Amino acid sequence: MADEFKSEAFESIHSSAEALLKIGAIDEATMGEFDQACIAEVPVDPPIGDEA
Asked: Helix H segments across the chain?
């Protein structure tokens, strides 16, 4: 599944952060912060047939 970004700008920022991670300029923890900031949250659909 491909990541869905909040906008094209966030996609570009995330791509730059991935390049920085690849060359060792940032660590995994910092990359995680970029993930949280740039990648859109996918809404969770309730299970079908679970009418409470």
From this structure: 8-22, 28-38
